[in-house]
Design goal:
A hairpin with a 2-residue loop joins strand 6 and strand 7. This protein has 144 residues and is α+β, with helices and mostly antiparallel strands. It is globular, with a radius of gyration of 14 Å.
Length: 144
Amino acid sequence: MRLSITMLALAVATPATAAPAGQRGDTLVAFADAFDKAQLTKDGTALTEMVSDDLVFIDGSGKRLGKRDFIAGWTGAGDSYEPIVLVDRVVTSLGPDAGIVGAETVLKGISGGTAFASHFRYADTFHRIKGQWRVVHIQVTRMP
């Protein structure tokens, strides 16, 4: 099975298709939703734009990774993801230019021809930099 610990631990959130740049909205929640959609639809171009170059990604094993690892985990050839349901979503504003969006979910899909399911809680931290929202920190906690 090609599914790595990184893939098992990736932070995701809601539905299906990523909005094109410029249609992502200006609010924290709209950007968080577009970020989630970009992950689930494997939109590497959108993820490259949305993720800060100095992203800190803490996967479910506690390993610190960066932007390249995060995007590679979502865009693997042959991988696919089912729609997800967010449980206990929390949106925390840290002012007009920063905030945290987190929830619990189960990510299911196919990786390397093998079905998988991963239950986790995540927190995505967003910061508006030069007028554009970017994800700057992702923390994932695996759950039984």
